Amino acid sequence: MVTPSHTITCTKNALVANDVYEFAFEKPQNFSFKAGQFVLFDVPLIDKLDDIQTRAMSIASSPDENELLFVAKLIEGGRASRWIEEKLKPGDTMRIQGPLGFFTLQEGITKEYLFICTSTGAAPFRSQIRTALKSGDTRRMDLIFGARTEEDLFWQKEFEELSHEYPNFFLHFALSNPSESWAGHRGRVQTLVPQIVKDFSNKHVYVCGNPDMTTEVKKLCLDQWGIGKKDLHVEGYI
């Protein structure tokens, strides 16, 4: 099966946290996707524009939104990072392939959702959580969002507004190196999970973020927290 491709036009590109850019594109009329899926961007080298490689990025917007939203953390010298930071601006066009991937909300599941992420691993969860809540899903949903410092956080206001609008959505931040004034959890997401969840038997878990975190959380889920493989979905990124 041939993966569909689209040419999309950038509408915004902005720094929203320490080394984190949020960028959006007009959504083609014939583009549909499921919350949690990703696309492949054709990314050229800045110094050699005919040198193209693809880079995968999760769609952060929900299917009912008019734009395709993405977020990326810069990697020094990275192909996509240089393009996003130095070149991408409103009006630019890029080619994407997709949607792709199976990191999606499972149908027929009645267990409560537990979303665990670090940094831009929050991208698919923004899409999934908005989609589930706005569809009328009333089960409990917890989002545990890990970062290093306050300056590394983004989308706090949006997630907080969702938690106020929907009483079944709970937001938790975990900072590994916060300032002295930080009043929230200090430590990694792995240490916060057991403080929030007392009964793992009714949890359906999604994990997204850096590979070290996802590997450790997967092991904890399977070996200590009693999460079965059918209730665990993990997606790491580099």
Question: Could you write a compact summary of the structure shown?
Answer:
With 238 residues, the protein is of the alpha/beta class. It has helices spanning 79-87, 123-134, 156-165, 189-196, 211-223, and strands spanning 5-17, 20-26, 38-45, 48-58, 67-73, 93-100, 112-118, 141-147, 169-175, 185-186, 203-209, 232-236. The chain has 2 domains: 5-99, Translation factors (Elongation Factor Tu (Ef-tu), domain 3, Beta Barrel); 112-236, Rossmann fold (3-Layer(aba) Sandwich).
Name the features.
238 residues, alpha/beta, Elongation Factor Tu (Ef-tu), domain 3, Rossmann fold, 2 domains, six-stranded antiparallel beta sheet
- Could you state the oligomeric state of the chains shown? single chain
Q: Given the C-alpha coordinates, what overall shape results?
A: globular
Terminal residue distance: 27 Å
CATH superfamily of the largest domain: Nucleotide-binding domain of ferredoxin-NADP reductase (FNR) module
- The CATH first-level class of the largest domain comes to Alpha Beta
List segments where confidence is low: pLDDT < 50 over at least 5 consecutive residues: none
- Main sheet specs: 6 strands, antiparallel
Count of beta strands: 12
Structure classification: alpha/beta
Mean pLDDT equals 96
CATH topology of the largest domain: Rossmann fold
**Total of helices:** 5
Task: Give the spatial strand order of the biggest sheet.
Answer: 4-3-6-1-2-5
Compute the CA-based radius of gyration. Answer: 18 Å
Residues in helices, as a percent range = 10-25%
What is the count of distinct domains? 2
Order of helices and strands: EEEEEHEEHEHEEHEHE
CATH 2nd-level architecture of the largest domain: 3-Layer(aba) Sandwich
Report the portion of residues in β strands. Answer: 35-45%
